[in-house]
């Protein structure tokens, strides 16, 4: 018999399944403990300035590496800017921290093929990010005509084996916000893959069964997808339960329950085409709780706890390590981490907020109790 649990106010329904105990799990007394190769975060917003200094330790305490998004003001459009941003991140890290930021470039209509060569030769830039202009936070400088203005750059990316990271939504105001990912796949992404079959593409933060099916239909090693905690545990009802919930608002927006279930099935299946990418996106509380609130969920402190919860409830804890720690570096052609982290079945309460001199940041599942507690390496 299938049972279900409902999260209070902020979450959707997650079906329980029979829980298998994999080899990575040890039982110490009454406590279950899970040992994992240290994960990486393949989609991360660290911001800059005071916000960077405030949030970077949360990611660095759990993840070995992070693909850092370039949508700052101004955006990171050159290799020189990426190198400078990387130095800022390294300076903001806690002492004795081994976290490695993997930098990206922000693709524009004016990006040159030579910039791709510089990026590859830099040793610090690992991908190029496609933001359709107007699709999300700080995307106003993004691409307006991918096939009309970016073909030479895409050709050079193929030659340099440089992955393209895609925010997969169209921005046509006539397209319903809940259909923008599906329309993007049919009008942009599928034609892109057909034109450049050797281009490595990551469809970021997928939200629909349409995206799942598309990624599954592509060749392994050429197209993959990152998946966030929020799109695994929340559906669009979570935006409105008990009133408007601004801290559950992100882009791409949460979708209906059938899409969430399709994504859970995909990531817990053991497929190598899906891997961890939190899309952790911090904003000050006052920029979320306002008449025109920002899109973005700050999940860095809770991401591993929520991923473990999803895999446990799917009876797939034996597949968690590949999703968190193997599939990402394998796709990027990077070595897997050698250090380990532990997740213990120890209930802990998520802080209501994190307070800093500039204001508060409210994390995902603020004030709620989670079952899995991660430790540092």
Condensed summary:
With 377 residues, the chain is an alpha/beta fold.
Task: Note the main attributes of this structure.
alpha/beta, four-stranded antiparallel sheet, TIM Barrel, 377 residues, 16 strands, 31% helix, eight-stranded parallel sheet
The succession of helices and strands, N to C, reads: EEEEEHEHEHEHHEHEHEHHEHHHEEEE
So, CATH architecture?
Alpha-Beta Barrel
Distance between the termini: 38 Å
- Globally, the shape reads globular
GO cellular component, one term: cytoplasm
Organism: Vitis vinifera
Domain Amidohydrolase-related: 41-349
Catalytic activity: (S)-dihydroorotate + H2O = N-carbamoyl-L-aspartate + H(+)
Give structural notes:
The protein is of the alpha/beta class. The chain has one domain (35-374): Alpha-Beta Barrel (TIM Barrel), CATH 3.20.20. The protein has helices at residues 49-60, 79-92, 113-122, 146-149, 151-160, 180-195, 209-217, 230-233, 257-267, 285-288, 303-313, 320-332, and strands at residues 4-6, 13-15, 25-28, 31-37, 41-44, 65-68, 100-106, 125-130, 164-166, 201-203, 223-227, 274-276, 340-349, 354-356, 359-361, 369-374. It has an eight-stranded parallel β-sheet. Strands 3-4-13-16 form a four-stranded antiparallel β-sheet. The chain has a two-stranded antiparallel sheet with strand order 1-2. Strand 9 (164-166), helix 6 (180-195) and strand 10 (201-203) form a beta-alpha-beta unit. The longest helix has 16 residues, at 180-195. It starts with a strand and ends with a strand.
Tell me the layout of helices and strands:
Elements: E1 4-6, E2 13-15, E3 25-28, E4 31-37, E5 41-44, H1 49-60, E6 65-68, H2 79-92, E7 100-106, H3 113-122, E8 125-130, H4 146-149, H5 151-160, E9 164-166, H6 180-195, E10 201-203, H7 209-217, E11 223-227, H8 230-233, H9 257-267, E12 274-276, H10 285-288, H11 303-313, H12 320-332, E13 340-349, E14 354-356, E15 359-361, E16 369-374
Helix pairs in contact: 3-5
Organism: Vitis vinifera
Pathway: Pyrimidine metabolism; UMP biosynthesis via de novo pathway; (S)-dihydroorotate from bicarbonate: step 3/3
Enzyme class: hydrolase
């Amino acid at each position: 018999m299938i049972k279900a649990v409902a999260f209070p106010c902020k979450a959707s329904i997650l079906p329980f399944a029979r829980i298998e105990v994999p080899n990575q799990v040890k039982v110490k007394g009454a406590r279950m403990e899970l040992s994992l190769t240290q994960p990486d975060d393949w989609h991360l917003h660290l911001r800059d300035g005071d916000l960077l200094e405030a949030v970077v330790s949360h990611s660095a305490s759990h993840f070995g590496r992070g693909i850092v998004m370039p949508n700052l003001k101004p955006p990171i459009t050159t290799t020189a800017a990426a190198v400078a941003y990387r130095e800022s991140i390294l300076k903001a890290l806690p002492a004795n921290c081994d976290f490695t930021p993997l930098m990206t470039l922000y693709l524009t209509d004016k990006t040159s093929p030579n910039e791709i060569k510089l990026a590859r030769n830099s040793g610090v830039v690992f991908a190029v990010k496609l933001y359709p202009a107007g699709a999300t936070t700080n995307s106003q400088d993004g691409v307006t005509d991918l096939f009309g203005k970016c073909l030479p750059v895409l050709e050079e990316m193929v030659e340099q084996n440089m992955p393209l990271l895609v925010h997969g939504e169209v921005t046509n105001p006539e397209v319903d916000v809940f259909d923008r990912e599906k329309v993007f796949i049919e009008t942009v992404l599928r034609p892109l893959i057909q034109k450049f079959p050797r281009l490595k593409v990551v469809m970021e933060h997928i939200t629909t069964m349409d995206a799942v099916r598309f990624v599954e239909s592509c060749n392994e090693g050429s197209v993959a997808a990152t998946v966030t905690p929020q799109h695994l545990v929340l559906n669009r009802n979570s935006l409105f339960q008990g009133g408007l919930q601004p801290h559950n608002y992100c882009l791409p927006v949460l979708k209906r329950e059938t899409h969430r279930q399709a994504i859970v099935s995909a990531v817990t299946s053991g497929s190598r085409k899906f891997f961890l990418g939190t899309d952790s996106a911090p904003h000050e509380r006052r920029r979320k709780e306002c008449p025109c609130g920002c899109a973005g969920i700050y999940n860095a402190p809770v991401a591993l706890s929520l991923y473990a919860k999803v895999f446990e409830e799917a009876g797939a804890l034996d597949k968690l390590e590949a999703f968190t720690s193997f599939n990402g570096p394998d796709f990027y052609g990077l070595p897997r981490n050698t250090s380990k982290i532990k997740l213990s079945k120890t209930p802990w309460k998520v802080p209501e907020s994190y307070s800093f001199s500039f204001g508060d940041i409210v994390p995902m599942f603020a004030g709620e109790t989670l079952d899995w507690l991660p430790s540092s390496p």
